[in-house]
Please model this.
Amino acid sequence: MNQSNLKPVVEIKNLVAKYGERVILKDITTSFLASEIRVILGTSGCGKTTLLRSIIGLLKPFSGSIRIFGTEISDQDDPGTVEVLKKVGVLFQNGALLGSMTVSENVALPLQMHTDLPDSIIKEIVRLKLAQVDLPHAADLYPGELSGGMRKRAALARALALDPPLLFCDEPSAGLDPVTSAGLDDLLLRLRKMLGITIVVVTHELFSIEKISDKITFLYKGSLLFDGPLSEAMKMKEGPVSDFFKRQEPGSTHDKSGDSDFNLEISG
Model:
């Protein structure tokens, strides 16, 4: 993809993030371009999920700047932040589907909360979103009746319900077998091509990284160690970036290095 003329949809400058007195991210500066797939990666505790939390307003920066579509992001109680975050979809690692609601009811929820559309239109949008993620047959099923891969797709349909131009995915392949994981990668690539959206993915899965990423953001002990094309990172002969890729076994599929502070649990 030729990205030379694309504008950044996310701009991060000198970001410092803390939990209490503990510094998690140190002076992070990067930007994500329109219509690209950016992968955030690194070993356990490096701060990749904290970066994601900061970008979407779940964690207020200690210092520095985060802008989405040109709007400064503060905390989720700020009216400006609330409006811009309506343009952002999030696929949580565990799906975060409401267990007491059917798949179609889960997907309809953002539309009911944030629009005044009539039920007939919402029903049609839900049908289209489930078709986009190859899940039209699961509309009347409950999350407990779905396989792991189906839950991820249902959660993805809900994340796309408001047609956000920016989508964040936290460890989308976690807990999935290699075939299902590869299918989810294919789906993300197809959605990017079909919808033209920007997708930011937190993952440690080497196959996924190689397959979907336009660029990678590599964090190490809270610092930005590499920010650029995967091909350039793979040329490194030594250091943490090289070590990360060397330790990966092709075909590994389970999360052994993800941060745990983004695991949002929602039950119905």
